[in-house]
Design brief:
Elements (H helix, E strand, L loop, with lengths): L3 E5 L3 H17 L5 E6 L47 H5 L9 H18 L4 E6 L3 E5 L6 E5 L6 E3 L1 E4 L10 H13 L2 E3 L17 E5 L3 H10 L6 E3 L2 E3 L6 E5 L27 H9 L6 H24 L8 H10 L5 H10 L9 H5 L10 H19 L6 H16 L7 H11 L4 H12 L3 E5 L3 E5 L2 E5 L8 E3 L1 E4 L13 H8 L18 E3 L5 E7 L20 H26 L1
Parallel strand pairs: 1-2, 1-7, 2-3, 7-19, 8-17, 9-12, 9-17, 12-13
Antiparallel strand pairs: 4-5, 5-6, 10-11, 14-15, 15-16, 18-19
Helix pairs in contact: 1-3, 1-16, 7-12, 11-14
Length: 587
């Protein structure tokens, strides 16, 4: 019987692993004979999230020049580097263009087809448009992968679980809100992928509470405005009359920061500097483990500060009062988050607006109080306008240096495993916000009265037959509505995921991190069990694991952790298949 590999999930992560198998096979297993079974109800390449049959109104939130599926010489891997075109090169686009997701899906399909074509002649790929329900089999024997609608399982010598983003069962709060909505004839849309949500229940002119101000909200905003026939004439929104009225708030009370709208020039900060491989090795080697807030966050703060001040001193020296060499020496010697470090910055950077304060960035409306709804709207519009102007003004280029620092940090902390959800949300808020044009549309919708800002620290309750929202930003005010949308992605743990295969793995003994992610060996992605052993034939990659990286595709020349993981897993799988073949031949 021919050797067999089952990859559950044929989206960009599964495609990335396939590309790495094709790249590594000639060196590791040149005479490879193999059946690869891709299991995914959605088309290979784009998968569910990037499928080509979604609304053309939905954009990527990255410029096309910042999207690639191919390795380059910055990626630290054992396998060969096989360069390929980034999205803008492949599509012949202006690199600063924000492509729609359908085009990205077409790009991913092309990458998938190219990876399949690059596989050795003895490899055959089969796509099964089904859902994988469970995986069984002995640790040292062939695995069985059961599919919906199929009476017999696929047999596999090894399995890679690359399902990507997952749906989740409702948590306690969401279940209570949904039950209340059913009882009182209200509408409650729990966390979901906005493109898959049924928005037809949100009636024209209806007040809708929206909790969440990130990228899921941007999709919601687009589908309920342009998606219902509205249009923009310059900076003015012309309603169709079919839009609901969106009252949006969140913990921060503001949208994610705009994508930066200028290019880098000049010297780049030498990163990593204070949070690199040596520091990660030291954290991992601590006998008692490490705490994120106590041990990791101070290093992140110092690393991002270094990137910020390096750019300020080298590109805008007129806004500093000492030489960079003197500042750098003292900055390196000062303890992270210390009074000494704060005093150094205060003495060397005269304008407080030029200093980096990550705590203030994370709590932009702390202490801000408005006395009327109209004042709140004016205040938030002014905030968003200022953010847009800043993120498109090279005079504030230390912001771009911090962005580069965030990418560097993300590439390092992925080795630490599950460090909780806060860091990922903070990263997205600063580095993965919407394109500038989306925020200009948001301002137009606010002026048209289609979007109304609800403020920070939003609290939602269900009582007296309605949903009610209050905010610390507008004390005493209450917004009532008969519809509530949770504009955020599901946060599935192994215990609550709707993925039956992963849930059963957990019930059978697969290890979960404290945050409920699937625990995998950081070296090669093998699934870990609660006794600490790694399953020899099961691997997992992606956001449902503690090895989650910054995304299945990435910005070129950033030493992508996802590409490093894909390569390590592909090499481990090829080595396993080769060893199994050698043992079979010897027997």
């Amino acid at each position: 019987m021919r050797p067999s590999l089952v990859i559950v999930g044929a989206g960009p992560r599964g495609t990335g692993v396939l590309e790495r198998i094709a790249a590594n096979a000639p060196g590791l297993y040149p005479d490879l004979e193999l059946d690869i079974h891709l299991v995914d109800p959605f088309p290979p390449g784009g998968g569910r999230i990037w499928r080509e049959d979604q609304s053309p109104l939905l954009w990527m939130n990255s410029q096309s020049q910042d999207v690639t599926m191919f390795t380059d010489d910055t990626v630290e891997l054992d396998g060969p580097v096989l360069p390929g075109p980034a999205l803008h090169e492949w599509a012949d686009l202006d690199g600063r263009h924000f492509a729609d997701r359908r085009l990205q899906g077409t790009y991913l399909r092309w990458v998938h087809e190219r990876a399949v074509a690059a596989l050795p002649p003895g490899v055959t790929v089969h796509h099964h448009p089904h859902r994988a329900l469970r995986v069984g089999g002995p640790r040292e024997g062939r695995q069985q992968v059961w599919l919906d609608g199929r009476p017999r399982p696929l047999l596999a010598d090894t399995v890679i679980l690359a399902q990507g983003h997952l749906d989740a069962e409702l948590d306690e709060e969401q279940a209570e809100l949904s039950a209340y909505a059913r009882e009182h004839g209200l509408v409650h849309l729990p966390p979901d992928f906005t493109a898959d949500s049924d928005l037809s229940a949100l009636a024209p002119g209806e007040d809708v509470l929206v909790r969440g101000f990130g990228l899921a909200f941007v999709d919601l905003m687009v589908l309920l405005t342009e998606g219902r026939g509205g249009r923009y004439e310059g900076d003015t929104y012309i309603p169709s009359g079919r839009e609901p009225v969106l009252h949006v708030g969140s913990r921060r009370g503001i949208p994610y920061h705009s994508k930066i709208g200028y290019d880098w020039t000049g010297e780049r900060p030498p990163l990593p500097r204070f949070l690199g491989p040596a520091e990660v090795d030291e954290l991992l080697a601590r006998p008692g483990g490490f705490d994120f807030r106590r041990d990791v966050w101070p290093l992140i703060d110092k690393e991002l500060g270094f990137a910020h001040y390096h750019r300020l001193f080298t590109a805008h020296p007129e806004r500093t009062s000492v030489a960079w060499t003197d500042f750098e020496e003292k900055y390196a010697a000062a303890a992270p988050l210390s009074a000494e470090l704060q005093a150094l910055v205060a003495s060397a950077v005269p304008d407080p607006a030029d200093r980096l304060d990550l705590t203030a960035l994370d709590h932009p409306l702390d202490g801000v109080r408005h006395t009327s709804h109209a004042e709140l709207q004016d205040g938030l519009r002014a905030y968003i306008t200022a953010d847009l102007e800043r993120r498109h003004d090279p005079a504030h280029s230390p912001d771009l240096a911090v962005f580069l620092g965030l990418l560097s940090v993300y590439g390092q902390v992925v080795r630490l495993g599950d460090i909780g959800s806060w860091w990922h949300g903070f990263f997205s808020y600063l580095a993965s916000g919407p394109p500038g044009p989306r925020l200009r549309q948001l301002l137009a919708l606010s002026r048209a009265g289609v979007v109304k800002f609800a403020g920070a620290d939003l609290r939602v309750t269900a009582e007296d037959g309605v949903f009610r929202a209050t905010s610390a930003t507008l004390p005493g005010a209450v917004v009532e509505a008969r519809a509530l949308v949770e504009a955020r992605l599901p946060d599935p743990t192994l215990a609550r995921t709707r993925d039956q295969l992963l849930r059963e793995l957990y019930e059978e003994g697969a290890a979960a991190t404290p945050a409920g992610l699937l625990a995998v060996d950081p070296e090669d992605g093998r699934v870990l069990h609660r006794d600490g052993t790694a399953h020899p034939r099961r691997f997992a990659l992606g956001p449902h694991t503690n090895g989650r990286g910054a995304g299945a595709f990435t910005r070129p020349r950033t030493n992508s952790p996802s590409f490093r993981q894909n390569d390590a897993t592909a090499r481990a799988v090829l080595t396993l298949l080769r060893d199994l073949s050698c043992r079979a031949t010897a027997a």
